[in-house]
Design goal:
By secondary structure, the protein is α/β, with parallel strands linked by helices. It has a single domain, classed as Alpha/beta knot (3-Layer(aba) Sandwich), CATH 3.40.1280. The protein is built from seven helices and seven strands. Strand 1, helix 2 and strand 2 form a beta-alpha-beta unit. Helix 2 runs parallel beside helix 3 and helix 2 packs parallel to helix 7.
């Protein structure tokens, strides 16, 4: 069977205004001192793909408008709502007041394996992704409600932050929709 690739105009994508009005996945993505603007852009693009509510950019994490973010976001930085916080713990305090249950994506004592996470469709969640080398700051881990770890079976002990975002966001999306 032949399979013809679809043209962009055949994909039936919504525009930015329709995106803003569309029902969102009850998930906020928090970037804790993510230094790579390409990773930031990739996270925006993934958040657009799965209609994530919002991205919180914290600490040294760059903000739009930014040419480097745009290279990988491809305009998703314009569709996905975002806010900036100087300190990630301040962002978490705001999310807690807004009723979010917060997970750091981190290898930590008593972390829950992503394959075992149990989500409640009636709750709102936030996930925190950390610095490319140092991960989620310990103070931020302490302020989280829990930690989720992606099981890994190779020789490396971590994944790129944008890859991690894609895996975790997809898992939350399919479990919350």
């Amino acid at each position: 069977m032949k399979r013809r690739k679809l043209k962009l105009e055949e994909l039936g994508r919504i525009n930015i205004e329709e995106f803003r009005e569309a029902e969102k996945t009850p998930l906020v993505v928090v970037l804790d001192n993510v230094r790579s603007q390409n990773n930031i852009g990739s996270v925006f693009r993934t958040c657009d793909a799965f209609r994530i509510e919002e991205v919180l950019l914290c600490g040294i994490t760059a903000t739009p408008p930014n040419v480097e973010i745009h290279k990988t976001a491809l305009g998703a930085e314009d569709s996905v709502k975002w806010r900036y916080f100087n300190h990630t713990v301040s962002a978490l305090n705001t999310l807690k007041k807004e009723g979010y249950y917060i997970y750091s994506i981190e290898q930590a004592e008593n972390s829950i394996s992503l394959e075992n996470i149990q989500l409640d469709k009636n709750k709102k969640y936030a996930i925190i992704l950390g610095h490319e080398v140092h991960g989620v700051d310990q103070e931020v881990v302490n302020a989280s409600d829990g930690c989720i770890e992606i099981p890994q079976y190779g020789t490396k002990h971590s994944l790129n932050v944008s890859v991690t975002a894609g895996i975790v966001i997809w898992d939350f999306f399919k479990n919350l929709k």
